[in-house]
Amino acid sequence: MTDIYKIKVNSLQNKAIDLSEYNNKYILFVNVASKCGFTSQYKELEELYKMHEDNLMIVGSPCNQFGSQEPGTAEDIEAFCKVNFGVSFLMTEKIDVKGSKQHPLYSWLTDKTLNNSKSSTVKWNFQKYLVSPEGQLVDYYFSITKPSSSKITKHLI
Fold first, then answer.
1. Of 38, 15, 5, 35, whose CA–CA distance to 105 is shortest?
2. Per the residue annotation, which of 17, 36, 105, 130 is the catalytic one?
3. What is the C-alpha to C-alpha distance for residues 95 and 119, in angstroms, rounded to an integer?
4. What are the residue ranges spanned by the domains of the chain?
5. What is the DSSP letter of 36?
6. Which tens digit of pLDDT belongs to each residue from 61-115?
7. What is the pLDDT of residues 4-31, one digit of tens each?
8. Is 36 a catalytic residue?
């Protein structure tokens, strides 16, 4: 098993993110896109983050692998998220969440041999992965699962 807190990923502003800063919180990882039918989930993600920010970090990872629905630059993505949804949670650089160039973060989230819990495939934008405060994969949720779903929030209480 690999330690998720040792995985290197950069922010949308191209600064290193130290995931170990959140090792006493739940982390909800979400691959996001600005031009998707699920893009309105940004609003619920922000509300969930504000409601549980004492014990939750949300990490949005822009991805252009599904229908080319995240074509913008880092600056475009940041402006879109802030202006339209007031996003204040953590956003990573644009990454691949599947395929031969899959980012190590998503390799961990989707591979049981790395996360010691379960394997999955990212099917579309706004798929969610919940990691416990102890760094264990709790579960993953397809795009149709809203951020406010009890499937997710029951863990945050």
1. 5
2. 36
3. 19
4. 4-153
5. S
6. 999 999 999 999 999 999 999 999 999 999 999 999 999 999 999 999 999 999 9
7. 999 999 999 999 999 999 999 999 999 9
8. yes
